[in-house]
Write a structure and sequence with these properties.
about 220 residues, mainly alpha, about 60% helix
């Protein structure tokens, strides 16, 4: 059994406020055995996985940590009007990022703070700028006139502005003002978010965001 199963099994039970004794009785096993499953001491059979997925209303893939989406939907990326001419992997990656950004800006729209939107936009723009400039300048034959900031300074300046934008965003989200010109975000303006809410409100884009989160956290584990 993979290491995700015990964690998710425990998380689902605690999320629903069910005692280990009750969950074990409902699932037809002893509390001691369920405790072993939740701690990763014992491995369960396929029948228990299916029974548990039905009990908590999730997919087997989610229970096993194979998908970040509780209902196990596969990644769906709406087709664009333009014909795909890219290789599969770069195209899917592009759509994952693009679709995820729809949700980020959808949440910013709900919060309705110009100052916060400005800082988040600066942060994201800096990442795109750095990526593009790195690709562009890799070929010395490309004309350097496209950029005014010197190569030795651009990345440091952009990274610094990104860190400042992130710090300002965090301060505003804590309900504080960065300066007299900025707005503090009120706690009442912060939307309540969950996987289920995102799936319901952004059905076409949420799977992409879940895939981005899963890919990023897998990278964290590897590093």
């Amino acid at each position: 059994m993979n290491s995700d199963f015990p964690r998710i099994l425990t998380l689902l039970r605690k999320e629903q406020g069910i005692s280990q004794k009750k969950a074990a009785a409902d699932l037809g096993i002893s509390q001691a055995l369920l405790s072993h499953y939740e701690k990763g001491i014992r491995e369960c059979g396929l029948d228990f996985i299916v029974r548990t997925a039905d009990y908590y209303g999730v997919s087997c893939d989610y229970l096993l940590g194979k998908t970040p989406h509780r209902q196990g939907e596969k990644l769906h990326v709406p087709e664009t009007e333009e014909e795909d001419t890219h290789d599969g992997l770069p195209n899917v990656s592009r759509k994952i990022i693009s679709n995820s950004l729809h949700i980020v800006f959808g949440i910013l729209k709900k919060i309705n703070s110009k100052s916060l939107t400005k800082e988040i936009t600066l942060y994201l723009s800096g990442a795109v700028y750095n990526a593009f400039r790195m690709l562009y300048t890799a070929n010395p034959k490309n004309p350097s006139a496209l950029f005014e900031t010197k190569d030795g300074l651009s990345e440091a300046l952009t990274d610094g502005r990104m860190q400042l934008a992130r710090a300002k965003s965090r301060v505003m989200l804590l309900g504080e003002k960065v300066s007299d010109d900025d707005e503090a975000v009120k706690k009442d303006d912060l939307p309540q978010l969950s996987g289920e809410m995102l799936s319901a409100e952004y059905p076409d884009w949420a799977p992409s965001l879940f895939a981005l989160i899963e890919n990023t956290e897998n990278e964290h584990k590897e590093n």
